[in-house]
Amino acid sequence: MSALFEPFEVIPAIDMQDGDVVQLVQGERGTGTQYGDPVVAANQWVEAGAETLHLVDLDGAFEGERMNATAVDAILESVDIPVQLGGGIRTIDDATSLLDRGVDRIILGTAAVENPTLVAELADSYPNRVVVSLDAADGEVVVSGWTESTGVDPAVAAARFADYGACGILFTDIDVEGTLEGIQSSVTARVVDAVDIPVIASGGVASIDDVQSLYTTGAAAVVVGTALYENKFTLTDAMGAVENN
User: Which of 17, 132, 158, 185 has the largest count of CB atoms under 10 Å?
Assistant: First the structure.
C-alpha cells in the first residue's frame, strides 16, 4: 500500500456551496446546513491539528463547473498542509490547472466513471496525485452530484481504477452521508479488500467508535464533516483514539 496516509488520518471536510461551508444529508440539494466561511474553517482545522484538508466544490459536482474557485485559492494561500479537492473537475485542463496551482491531490468522480482513460493519463503525468471518488447508493456507484446511478458495484469499480493508476479511492456511502446515524463498515470493507491502494472512507460518521470501526476495515483515512461541525467529537479526540489502537 502507498504511504499516501501513514499513519491513518482523520480528515476534516470543507464542502462548499455558494461560497459557504455546507454539509448535505445523503447528498441531496436543499438539505444543507451552513457553517460559514471556508477559509475560516480551513484555518480552524489546521489549528486543531489536521494533517490534510478535504475540499469539495458542491456546485461543481452538481453543475459540472467549479463555482468556488475563489475560496479554494484563498485556502491554498492560507494553509501549509496538503489539500485534496473534488467537485466539477471534468477535463485534463481542469485537473492540471489545479495541480499546477498547488492542490496536492485532485479527486475525479463523474469524469473518471465516464472516461476512465482520463485517470490513466493524469496519473501518468502526476503520480500519486489522482484520487478517484466512488459514491455509492443502494450498492451502486452514482454520478453527477449523486443523481444518476451507474449500476456498477463500487468494489469492482475501485479495482478497475487502481489498474488505471489512481493513487487512492475516496469511497462515500451516500446512504448514510450527513445523517449522523453511523456508518456501514461492511460496505467500506468490501472496497478496501478489492484494492491494494489506499481507501479514504466517508459517509455517516457520527462518533469516535465509527472512526475506529473504519480504521479496522483497513481504510487509510476517514473524511469527517457533519460530526465535527456539530461538535459530536473533536478532531484531536478522534485522532487520539486511533493512535491508541
Answer: 132
